[in-house]
TrEMBL record:
<feature type="transmembrane region" description="Helical">
    <location>
        <begin position="51"/>
        <end position="72"/>
    </location>
</feature>
<dbReference type="GO" id="GO:0046475">
    <property type="term" value="P:glycerophospholipid catabolic process"/>
</dbReference>
<keyword id="KW-0812">Transmembrane</keyword>
<feature type="domain" description="GP-PDE">
    <location>
        <begin position="127"/>
        <end position="409"/>
    </location>
</feature>
<dbReference type="InterPro" id="IPR030395">
    <property type="entry name" value="GP_PDE_dom"/>
</dbReference>
<protein>
    <recommendedName>
        <fullName>GP-PDE domain-containing protein</fullName>
    </recommendedName>
</protein>
<dbReference type="InterPro" id="IPR017946">
    <property type="entry name" value="PLC-like_Pdiesterase_TIM-brl"/>
</dbReference>
<dbReference type="GO" id="GO:0008081">
    <property type="term" value="F:phosphoric diester hydrolase activity"/>
</dbReference>
<keyword id="KW-1133">Transmembrane helix</keyword>
<dbReference type="InterPro" id="IPR052271">
    <property type="entry name" value="GDPD-Related"/>
</dbReference>
<keyword id="KW-0472">Membrane</keyword>
<dbReference type="Pfam" id="PF03009">
    <property type="entry name" value="GDPD"/>
</dbReference>
<comment type="similarity">
    <text>Belongs to the glycerophosphoryl diester phosphodiesterase family.</text>
</comment>
<dbReference type="GO" id="GO:0005737">
    <property type="term" value="C:cytoplasm"/>
</dbReference>
<keyword id="KW-0443">Lipid metabolism</keyword>
<dbReference type="GO" id="GO:0016020">
    <property type="term" value="C:membrane"/>
</dbReference>
<keyword id="KW-0378">Hydrolase</keyword>
Amino acid sequence: MWRLNVLVGAEMSGRSVWTMSGDGRALPALPALSAVSVAGLRLQNRAPRRIVWFSMWLVAVALVLVVALSVYEVALDIGGGMLGYMINSARSSFGSSSMDRCVGCFSHLYALQSPERATPFVSGHHAMLVAHRGGAGDRFVENTLPAFRWGNRTTQFMELDVDLSSDGQVVLWHDETLGRLLKTSDAKAAFGNRRACELSARELQALELVGESASRPATLKELLNEFELLKAVPGSAPLAVYMVDFKSCVPSEPTTPGTDVDARSHHDAACPSCERLIQATLDELSNAHVPLARVVFSTKEPFVTRRVKEVAEERGLGPALATLSCDLRHAWYSRRRLMQRLDDARADGVSAYYLFALRRPRLLRSVYEQRGGPVFVWTVDRAEDVYSLLRAGFGAIITNTPAQLEPFMKRWIAGDVAG
């Protein structure tokens, strides 16, 4: 006979469950299990399995993330180096300005993702301008006394390039060869492929440089003699702060006129010419009684950065503040690789190409937070680029045109420019 057992009630005490048959007759009580307890047993049986599976899933995800990040770091190092090399090659072939504009479009878009108005990355300073090679722009020839006089009207912070003449004088010169700045075609033919280190200081200063006003290469001694004497003149400009960029080393391969010395591949080992330049530069600073507290040393060579700090310590001149210069190739470095490069150089901070700063602002912020040294950005001549950099938190701007950018910087510091 067919029966239909109907659940009619349940004692929450768990003693019994009453059932009735289809014809109304009472049936024996079932075991003392309520509906709640039955569901509980099922959950208890399944819970350990779910916890185990969930834990295994979390471990698997963590392992995948670790492997992915490791692969990303390696890929970033390899791919970044290749991409940076390709970009630098394109800059040499098609012109740096065209390539910079192309890369800059993407970099500006990237920078807009970080609109916070952060603290500038220079200890003890607000936003400031650094006069690049004197900061005269097109008005005077770079690295000449007229250029530094002009730049010093706007800012006390002056960037200069030093090289060593054949007779051991520290001269202010940027390029590896002389051709770009020589005025006459005869001079270009005679000296265009020559290097500054191949001529004596007297021979260099006999050369006429481009420009309307008569300009000649200057020596570091001349610059220091002029600007350090100003501290004895009442009402003169504040004491100058010098950013000394080392440009020396006999190249390992032929170069063409106007080649940027920074484009060469150098070394990380001891170099006699670099050693002589470091020693001579510190000699000039000491003779002019310029404390190292008013000097920032900069170079792209980890060996030079490390060595200038060692020499300053050996001479008892006090700690030397040194930054390692980084170009667009380093914008694709991983954080680990960049920090390792800075450790090898004993660098306190970074002097970064402005497209690098726009591309990786958080990377450079981590450099500042970990090492505590300054982060300079070069070379920025347009107000819109300065605006993007200031919004990203970069306060030390190296520029060829400090006089043109000064009004904008004053408005930014005063808070009149929207952040």
